[in-house]
């Protein structure tokens, strides 16, 4: 048994079940080892940003790390934007980065790069194997580190000779460290401050936005506590019968106005609200300066149980069942972001997963689907566009019994459109909706907000996508995914309804 075989067996023993790969020469022994490990599903991606985004989507829904297989420093660089998003989501991922053989590093070959400093920013754990005996032991430690106490990315660098040299065999499985729950004194202190505050709010994230956490949050809301989420949480359960917290507004002046009355902010698995960017004369912090800030649980720590314990201390009653709202009628007329949202609200199947990278185009979809069939919504936590299709791919592989919908802009989609090829190859029935407005609309908005009121021709050409317009139907079909284009609301409604019933990936170019 060589180092690669011992390591891959160790990963499978540790619960790793998926590998999203874009390998090169240094990783060939790992590819060979995957050939003999049926417990790990190996998925080829044509770009590293697809592999890393798919691992993010997989981890958000399986609560276990997927493996990414990346080729030296440049391969890691190529996957970096979606690893940044995954870091912000605190997704468990194991990045396996092949490197030159230890004795070859001295020659500074063309692909040589210092991988450690590249990966340090995104990683909760890092290791470099020096021998074939190191590889399985470090792999076991990496899986455990990715799962806690704060989940995140573990990066293991594997020189080629540590993969091909003989190994003593697989390593024992390492148990992940579990963070302790908040102490009784902390819970009692937070409860006391909530009783005293005139306008208290709790910002929730992590598993606080899943079923058990939201049930506890609904109880707290019944006591007059305002419940909010971050602007872009990693994952949120929502829909008919599910408590719907308020969402912190994106633009800083809107957030400042919305949160102005808060005198106590309790952070439960969430960060305090802040502006995404600085603007001339605009605030950076969302909370009023006088508001007291308390931390119930840190971001990434288990939160649902703490919210329930807090509700119990406050003797919060169970909330009354929510009345079922009437869904929008079938839309007609010209297609728009609003009519697309209406179709989603009407037609989302129960337990669907919606991955939102539509930026401005998908804006109306979130509020309008509040009372759709119960589903999960996935946000772009790190703000680096190009997350949508890869994360949808990974979520579909993690949850083959659930329907996955990707909402993407035409600008965002071009960052990682290679994901379509992998969807076709893996036969994952993801339905991708491209909002084709032929522009970087969010940048047009931001351009004006930074104070530039009269953009010239050069500036306008930097923000439009219409010379030439991207043919998403041809692009999608070239990668094996059936595609349709429409600018009609009724036709979109029909196409989306049909796509929800199929078992293969489909793309709909929504011209708005």
Question: What does this 3D model show about the protein?
Answer:
- By secondary structure, this protein is α/β, with parallel strands linked by helices.
- It has three domains: 3-164, Rossmann fold, CATH 3.40.50; 184-313, 3-Layer(aba) Sandwich (Rossmann fold), CATH 3.40.50.1220; 337-511, Rossmann fold (3-Layer(aba) Sandwich), CATH 3.40.50.
- It contains 21 helices and 18 strands.
- It has helices at 3-13, 28-34, 48-62, 72-78, 80-89, 115-120, 134-147, 160-164, 184-196, 211-221, 252-258, 304-313, 337-347, 365-368, 388-398, 410-413, 419-426, 441-449, 457-463, 472-478, 489-501; strands at residues 18-21, 41-44, 66-71, 93-99, 123-128, 153-159, 200-204, 226-229, 235-238, 246-247, 264-268, 292-297, 352-357, 375-378, 404-409, 430-436, 482-486, 506-511.
- The strands form three sheets. It has a seven-stranded mixed β-sheet, sandwiched between helices.
- Helix 7 (134-147) links the parallel strand 5 (123-128) and strand 6.
- Helix 1 packs parallel to helix 7, helix 3 (48-62) crosses helix 15 (388-398) and helix 13 packs parallel to helix 21 (489-501).
- It starts with a helix and ends with a strand.
- The model has no long low-confidence stretch (mean pLDDT 94).
Task: Summarize model confidence as the mean pLDDT.
Answer: 94
Second rung of CATH, namely the architecture of the largest domain: 3-Layer(aba) Sandwich
CATH homologous superfamily (4th level) name of the largest domain: Thiamin diphosphate (ThDP)-binding fold, Pyr/PP domains
CATH topology descriptor of the largest domain: Rossmann fold
The CATH class name of the largest domain reads Alpha Beta
In this structure, how is the largest beta sheet organized? 7 strands, mixed
Report how far apart the termini are. Answer: 57 Å
Residues in helix, %: 25-40%
Shape: globular
Widest β-sheet, arrangement of strands: 9-14-13-15-16-18-17
- SS-derived structural category: alpha/beta
């Amino acid at each position: 048994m060589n180092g690669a075989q011992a390591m891959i067996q160790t990963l499978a023993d540790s619960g790793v079940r998926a590998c999203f790969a874009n390998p090169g020469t240094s990783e060939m022994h790992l590819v060979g080892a995957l050939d003999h490990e049926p417990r790990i599903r190996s998925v080829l991606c044509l770009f590293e940003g697809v592999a890393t985004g798919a691992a993010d989507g997989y981890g958000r829904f399986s609560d276990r790390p997927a493996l990414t297989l990346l080729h030296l420093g440049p391969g890691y660089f190529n996957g970096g934007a979606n690893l940044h998003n995954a870091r912000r989501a605190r997704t468990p991922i194991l990045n396996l980065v092949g490197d030159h053989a230890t004795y070859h590093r001295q020659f500074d070959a063309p692909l040589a790069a210092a991988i450690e400093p590249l990966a340090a920013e995104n990683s909760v754990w890092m290791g470099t194997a020096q021998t074939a005996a190191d590889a399985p032991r470090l792999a076991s430690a990496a899986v455990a580190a990715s799962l806690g106490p704060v989940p995140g990315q573990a990066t293991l660098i594997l020189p080629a000779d540590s993969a091909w040299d003989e190994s003593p065999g697989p390593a024992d499985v390492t148990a992940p460290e579990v963070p302790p729950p908040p102490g009784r004194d902390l819970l009692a202190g937070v409860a006391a401050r909530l009783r005293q505050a005139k306008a208290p709010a709790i910002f929730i994230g992590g598993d606080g936005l899943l079923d058990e956490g939201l049930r506890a949050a609904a109880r707290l809301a019944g006591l007059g506590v305002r419940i909010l989420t971050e602007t872009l949480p990693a994952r949120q359960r929502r829909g008919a019968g599910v408590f719907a917290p308020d969402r912190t507004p994106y633009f800083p002046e809107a957030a400042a106005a919305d949160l102005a009355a808060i005198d106590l902010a309790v952070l439960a698995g969430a960060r305090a609200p802040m502006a995404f960017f600085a603007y001339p004369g605009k605030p950076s912090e969302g909370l009023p300066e006088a508001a007291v800030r308390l931390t119930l649980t840190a971001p990434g720590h288990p939160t649902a149980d703490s919210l329930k314990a807090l509700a119990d201390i406050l003797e919060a009653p169970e909330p009354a069942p929510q009345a079922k709202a009437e869904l929008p009628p079938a839309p007609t007329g010209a297609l728009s972001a609003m009519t697309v949202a209406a179709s989603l609200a009407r037609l989302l199947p129960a337990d669907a997963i919606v991955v939102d990278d539509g930026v401005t185009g998908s804006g109306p979809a979130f509020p309008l689907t509040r009372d759709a069939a119960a589903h999960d919504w996935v946000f772009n936590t790190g703000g680096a566009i190009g997350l949508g299709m890869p994360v949808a791919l990974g979520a579909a592989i993690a949850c083959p019994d659930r329907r996955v919908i990707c909402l993407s802009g035409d600008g965002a989609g071009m960052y990682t459109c290679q994901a379509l090829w992998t969807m076709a190859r893996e036969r994952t029935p993801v339905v991708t909706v491209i909002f084709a407005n032929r522009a970087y609309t969010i940048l047009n908005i931001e351009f004006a907000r930074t104070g530039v009121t009269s953009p010239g021709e050069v500036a306008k050409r930097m923000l439009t996508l219409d010379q030439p317009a991207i043919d998403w139907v041809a692009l999608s079909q070239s990668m094996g995914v059936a595609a349709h284009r429409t600018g009609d609301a009724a036709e979109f409604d029909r196409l989306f309804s049909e796509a929800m019933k199929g078992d293969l990936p489909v793309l709909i170019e929504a011209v708005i």
